[in-house]
Design brief:
Length: about 230
Amino acid sequence: MMISSMETLNKIKGGIIVSCQALEDEPLHSVNIMTRMAKAALIGGAVGIRANSPEDCESIKENIDLPLIAIYKRVYGSSNVYITPTIEEVKKLLPIKPQIIAVDATKRERPDGKSLKEFFLEIREVYDGMIMADISSYDEAIEAENIGFDIVSTTLSGYTDYTLDRSRPDIELIKELKKVLKVPIIAEGNVDTPSLAATCLESGAWAVVVGGAITRPQLITKRFVDSVKKVHI
């Protein structure tokens, strides 16, 4: 049985959601590995998991007793939108019954040419859980709330052509949105230190998603390697 939306929000409030994702070209790409990564996150005190693909999401939902934010990344040649870009990807996630499904809610053209509102209404017809808007800007967040999204996440700030100059994580955006939005704000995007996670919460985030800094050892290793390269011995 899916827990209520309010119960899910209460469970994740003030905590760390760990993004357990490894794409096909990454060394940890494996359903079993991502499920074990989610288990490690649970042991470490995570309040939720964000995962990609029906296979990973299904395994994590079955084995990890934490709220799940499900996405399905798919690249269409005609569009830069790839985080759960169409209703077809949403439908693949429905049997898993995740507490939250996240989608790209930027103003970029969608692969099927539909507006964000049209896409949202399509989802709402088939899914009664919470829908999260992955946005990149202030205006996109406002539009997402007006359309009816349950949660807004700063996932794509700094990653769209028109936000490349924004800092990551976008602390200022979190502060600006906290003043005007009624829906919870999730901080995501290059939260790579514990102090940054705390700053996100202090700035108004409901919860914080941390990904590569925890679950991508190749990136963690590179940070150490790049740092010691600066030392001459």
